[in-house]
Amino acid sequence: MATRRRTLLKIVLLGDSGVGKTSLMNQYINNKFSQLYKTTIGADFLTKEIVIDDRIVTLQIWDTAGQERFQSLGVAFYRGADCCVLVYDVNVNKSFDSLDNWHDDFLKQASPSDPDNFPFILLGNKIDVDSGNSRVISDKKAKEWCQSKDDISYFETSAKEDINIDAAFLFIAKRALTHE
Ligand code: GDP
Ligand code: MG
């Protein structure tokens, strides 16, 4: 049997408190969703192995433990990140307005060598709420923001209904591999 190459990718989740970062990670890794508001999973990161083009890729997904309220995540959180997943809630204007800050903060703290080409992705989460009637940020507005940031890719997700999460993480992992 051919030896497969192993790769580790560090992915950090960023966005306002309450947008669903922990829920997205929990749904992606454990196939679970909880309405109960939990600010932390009690670990710095969780891992998941996926196979991409015959390569075993370990995704190491870093979630915040509630410190995002104070925008003080510390260097260890950002250090060596291969990808950054920005998350907002399509029903909350403020969470969309905060994206500039999170994006800038990441570039400042992680200081990647080629900031214009770094693998970012944007997730518009909670599209299930009220069957989309409570939505305040349109798909168009989100995509315009993405274009203004060197063409970040955009996915609309629901951690509750498990919509688009696998696709989004697979996409960002592939982007990071071609970016190496
Ligand atoms: P975090 O602070 O960004 O980690 O957000 P959480 O994952 O803790 O989620 C905050 C709240 O939103 C919790 O009550 C979740 O159950 C809820 N939530 C998260 N994602 C979704 C979603 O896609 N749809 C709905 N309806 N609720 C969600
Ligand atoms: Mg959380």
TrEMBL record:
GO molecular function, one term: GTP binding
Gene Ontology BP term (one): protein transport
Domain of life: Eukaryota
Gene Ontology CC terms, in alphabetical order: endomembrane system; vacuolar membrane
Entry keyword set: GTP-binding, Lipoprotein, Membrane, Nucleotide-binding, Prenylation, Protein transport, Transport
Keyword field contains S-adenosyl-L-methionine: no
Localization per record: Endomembrane system
Gene3D superfamilies in UniProt: P-loop containing nucleotide triphosphate hydrolases (3.40.50.300)
Pfam families recorded: Ras
Membrane topology: Lipid-anchor
Family indicated by similarity: Belongs to the small GTPase superfamily. Rab family.
Protein name (Swiss-Prot/TrEMBL): Ras-related protein Rab7
Organism: Zostera marina (Eelgrass)
